[in-house]
Write a structure and sequence with these properties.
With 981 residues, the protein is mainly beta. The chain is built from twelve helices and 64 strands. Strands 42-43-44-47-46-45 form a six-stranded antiparallel β-sheet. Strands 54, 55, 56, 57 and 58 form a five-stranded antiparallel β-sheet that branches. The chain has a four-stranded antiparallel β-sheet with strand order 1-64-63-62, with no helix packed on it. Keywords: Endoplasmic reticulum, Glycoprotein, Membrane, Signal, Transmembrane, Transmembrane helix.
């Protein structure tokens, strides 16, 4: 017989097995979340077949991209930077130094064909390897050895350079021979080129050529089968297979060029392939001291006996690009404010293409994809990748999003409030003086009449929603493809005014990149770019939302990054934008216009920027405080008279902050000094013991609502949370000892301290996240009793005992209060690259800790699993009342994965934002790839599920209404008849 206690234990066990997990159905994948795969800024591109181009990027990624759509067919993310990358019909060859290996990849699917690992004492040379069409490979090792690898990656033969020759080697291939070219030493009095002609099959040296040159040689370049170099004013060359030196005076060769004097040997560069070379010269104009690049095309004629000048391309502010396709040469350069030119030789064809460089920056790299039809790949300074035909853009990719420095969610305005105020109350001061109540009423009536036109659409949308969940609207309206969503914003139309949806799920994600881009993405349209801005010479690091969307006032963001001043020195720039359109925000208030410029550049060292919790009274924007370590000064932005007065009266007396130093942490109080200047006065200094160094620190969540001041226990008592808004965690290491301290930022006191022995911080990272009254951190332990990854949770309470609470109506860091800390460590199944935590509107829902994994996944762990109160022994009745799970390692549960089967690579940061649904938090992660999703740790308790039958409910209500209409008269007639009896 099952007893009551046994039944309770059975039910509790079932509850333990049903931890809230955010598994989704297959049909839901990609409906509300989106994943953008990126490769980064292209460094090189190679045509691998008629339909695909191989791109190698600054993020150490090479990928095959469709020439027709721009979609990534496959990609490989490498562990270390490549030394060389070479392609042929046999595949793709890569060499790297860490680890030392050569790898051959299948160009069709990106799979590894073979790998050759070097011995520890050897290393690859810097010279470009040779990948033959049959799959064999020749590689230089160091500066003295050449090896040949078979189709399977094994060594066939090895060749050793003679000792008398130099140390700079290059290799070329021609007609079954390998030419090992040993360049002369720069400090040699009698320099020579040594050309060793080696039989490809046997590795035997057939012949060695010795070519002399002057000690003033420079600019050695290999073009086709020729070696070019410069001696004084002479340009010399010789074929690699014979000693046949030719020379020409550079000024004489380019005598018809207007800027011929600028082609000085010290400032020219030579680019070439086959029988074409392009000579460029970079110089400064004396009048404006601006850099100009002049370029000219030269052909090799008469079997290499002479050079012929073909075309001068003029001078331009930027280099542009040069490429060679088959036997043709292409020069790509900017020829106007919104135009660039492609010149093709020997065809002599000139193609002019329009493009708005203000959105992307100048051309940084160019690659001809095909001639028939003409296709050109362009990478810009802002990391936009675009593919052109002869007239327009065919496709584009906003690869700057692979280098995001910071991102923020932005709430959109409510359409009803925004349009009503914009239409009816957007009046000047003079208009407000003459406006009367009747005209205002008439305008409002007209607005409502115009709104009647949307009534049919409203009915259709609401009745269409009867067949699905209330959240289905996003899925049906989300018709955009991922390729389209990853495209650059080209300013072809006016940005659409976006409005908030009923549940606050539609927001903008505004990101700033290291390549000078500011980009806004629509979360409800698969991350499609709404607007973008390019700031030349900027590398952004921070973004702050200083004004949210309010009635009549658009939201404002401030992007902060490093730049250069007018003199070319280092500076920090602040760019203020209208967050809905991306346009510069210019104040309409005359008194603050001079202090509220949209772009501000300062030469001070900006070491810390803090968004203050007060608004200046004129534009209603949050103040930013800028701290400079060297002078100890603090500046506020914007620094208007009204802003300074409000800051002085409301915030200055309680302005404390902390800053990391080389030896620990230091706390400051901001005071007013001479002539109103602000000074940061040190109030405490926490110096780490000798040998310790900081690993990481935590910070409170920007949006951290606390719904409950205490935690209800199973016995109906309360454990009151220690809610100190100024506390943060400092993690340091000394050898294998990891020390965790919780400090108060106002007075610098240590609230709690703990240590962990045998922790590996060399090969494994330590991460920490903070919310409400708890901290969670993750590390690798080499301890014999618990070796592996561990997640530790610290929860802080006001007292050790139940119902113990601080007797005070206000909180002050200066009170002598020491919190009680409850902690626990859990075995964790994965390594971690970053951490985040969900946030909800009122903080009622259970939180989830979100972990980014190096295995290209994102996993969400419910905070209930990371609870230090989980019982070690058999759960008591009170534990079951509190819904505590028995203590156990964090399970390796695939249902916890937000990314299901997606490969989300290189995630470094996770940010979250609340929606209007208390159950739902919005999650955005970025690094190499970007990924957006929704997370409901307590399930969606405030919205109807997808399988809820609204039609059945409606029919039931209609049936009840009809039944009431029919039965009502019958009942009344029956009662009347009963009264007559």
């Amino acid at each position: 017989m099952i007893t009551l206690r046994g039944l309770l234990l059975l039910l509790f066990g079932i509850a333990c097995l049903s931890v809230p997990a955010q598994a989704i159905y297959e049909s839901q994948a990609g409906a509300f979340d989106w994943h953008h795969t990126w490769i980064g800024h292209p460094r090189e591109a190679f045509n691998i077949d008629d339909n695909h181009v191989l791109v190698y990027s600054d993020r150490n990624v090479f990928a095959s991209i469709s020439k027709h759509t721009g979609a990534i067919e496959w990609r490989q993310i490498l562990d270390s930077q490549l030394i060389n990358l070479k392609t042929s019909d046999a595949g793709i060859l890569t060499t790297s130094d860490d680890p030392k290996r050569a790898q051959l990849w299948n160009k069709t699917n990106g799979h590894l064909v073979w790998e050759h690992v070097l011995p520890e004492e050897k290393q690859f040379g810097a010279a470009e390897p040779i990948l033959f069409e049959d799959g064999e490979t020749s590689l230089l090792l160091g500066n003295n050895e050449l090896i040949k690898l078979s189709k399977e990656g094994s060594i066939v033969w090895s060749w050793i350079k003679p000792e008398k020759e130099g140390n700079k080697l290059k290799i070329r291939e021609k007609e079954g021979h390998i030419y090992v070219i040993v360049e002369p030493e720069e400090d040699s009095n009698a320099p020579y080129f040594f050309i060793n002609i080696i039989d490809r099959l046997t590795g035997e040296t057939e012949k060695t050529l010795q070519i002399d040159c002057h000690s003033s040689f420079s600019h050695i370049t290999y073009i086709g089968d020729y070696i070019f170099w410069i001696e004084g004013s002479l340009l010399k060359w010789t074929p690699i297979y014979a000693k046949d030196i030719q020379a020409v005076v550079i000024q004489e060769l380019l005598k018809s060029v207007p800027e011929v004097d600028e082609f000085d040997a010290s400032q020219i560069s030579i680019h070439g392939q086959h029988n074409s070379l392009i000579i460029t010269a970079e110089y400064e104009e004396d009048e404006f001291a601006t850099t100009q690049v002049a370029s000219a095309l030269v052909h090799i004629e008469n079997d290499g006996k002479s050079l012929l000048f073909k075309k001068y391309f003029g001078s331009h502010p930027s280099f542009g690009g040069v490429d060679f396709y088959n036997a043709s040469a292409a020069r790509i350069y900017r020829s106007g404010a919104n135009e660039f030119t492609v010149y093709l030789s020997p065809e002599g064809k000139e193609i002019k293409i329009e493009h708005d460089f203000g959105l992307s920056g100048d051309i940084n790299y160019a690659k001809i994809l095909s001639f028939e039809p003409f296709r050109l790949l362009i990478a810009t300074e802002g990391s936009s990748v675009l593919c052109f035909d002869e007239r327009d853009i065919l496709w584009s990719r906003e690869e700057s999003l692979a280098n995001i420095a910071a991102s923020e969610f932005l709430d959109l305005p409510e359409q009803k409030m925004w349009t009503q105020m914009a239409d009816e109350l957007d009046e000047t001061v003079s208009e407000q003086a003459v406006e009367n109540p009747f005209s205002r009423y008439r305008r409002r009536l007209i607005t409502h009449l115009h709104g009647l036109g949307k009534l049919p659409k409203w009915f259709i949308s609401h009745f269409a929603g009867m067949y699905g969940s209330a959240l289905e609207a996003d899925r049906h309206n989300n018709k955009i493809s991922i390729v389209e969503a990853q495209s650059c914003w080209l300013n072809n139309s006016q940005p659409e005014t976006l409005y908030r949806d009923n549940f606050g799920l539609r927001k903008l994600i505004i990101s700033v990149t290291k390549t000078g881009k500011i980009i806004a993405q629509d979360t409800s349209r698969k991350g499609k770019i709404v607007w973008s801005r390019y700031a030349p010479y900027y590398s952004f690091s921070q973004i702050h939302v200083v004004r949210a969307a309010t009635v009549k006032l658009p939201p404002i963001i401030v992007a902060i990054g490093s730049t250069v001043d007018d003199m070319g020195g280092e500076a920090t720039g602040f760019i203020r934008l209208n967050a809905l359109t991306g346009e510069d925000y210019i104040s309409s208030i005359p008194e603050s216009a001079d202090f509220f410029e949209p772009v501000v550049t300062t030469g001070i060292n900006v070491d810390k920027v803090m968004r203050l919790p007060i608004e200046e009274p004129e534009e209603r924007t949050h103040l930013l405080a800028v701290y400079e370590t060297g002078s100890g000064r603090v500046f506020i932005y914007p620094d208007t008279t009204a802003a300074r007065e409000k800051f002085r009266s409301e915030f200055l007396p309680k302005f404390y902050f902390s800053h990391q130093t080389n030896t620990g942490m230091q706390g400051f109080k901001v005071v007013e000094g001479y002539r109103g200047s602000l000074k940061a006065i040190p109030v405490w200094n926490f110096i780490l013991p000798k040998g310790e160094e900081i690993v990481t620190t935590s910070k409170p969540q920007t949006y951290d609502k606390v719904a409950l001041l205490g935690r209800a226990l199973g016995n109906r008592n309360v454990a009151y949370k220690y809610l100190n808004p100024h506390m943060f965690a400092l993690i340091s290491r000394k050898g294998t000892l990891l020390k965790v301290r919780i400090l108060d930022a106002v007075k610098g006191s240590v609230l709690y301290e703990t240590t962990h022995d045998n922790v590996d911080t060399t090969t494994n990272q330590v991460h920490i996240i903070q919310a409400e009254n708890w901290f969670v951190y993750h590390f690798w332990s080499n301890d014999a009793r618990a070796k592996g990854y561990q997640a530790v949770v610290l929860e802080l309470f006001e007292g050790k005992h139940e119902n113990e609470r601080i007797e005070s109506t206000t909180f002050s860091s200066f009170d002598n209060i020491q919190p009680y800390v409850n902690s626990a460590a859990f075995a964790f199944p994965y390594p971690v690259s970053c951490m985040g935590v969900t946030t909800t509107k009122n903080g009622i829902s259970t939180k989830a800790i979100i972990f980014g994994l190096p295995t290209h996944q994102i996993v969400s762990v419910n905070k209930r699993l990371l609870d230090p109160r989980r019982p070690r022994d058999k759960p008591t009745k009170e534990d079951m009342e509190e819904m505590l799970f028995p203590y156990a390692p964090i399970p390796d549960e695939r249902r916890f994965f937000l990314t299901y089967d997606l490969d989300v690579a290189g995630i470094q940061t996770i940010i979250t934002s609340p929606s209007l649904l208390e159950s739902t938090s919005l999650v955005f992660s970025y690094g190499l790839d970007t990924f957006y999703s929704r997370q409901s740790p307590s399930r969606q308790f405030d919205v109807l599920s997808e399988d809820f039958s609204k039609v059945q409910l409606l029919l039931t209500m209609i049936g009840l209404g009809v039944a009431i209409l029919i039965s009502g008269p019958i009942v009344r007639r029956k009662r009347v008849n009963a009264l007559w009896k």
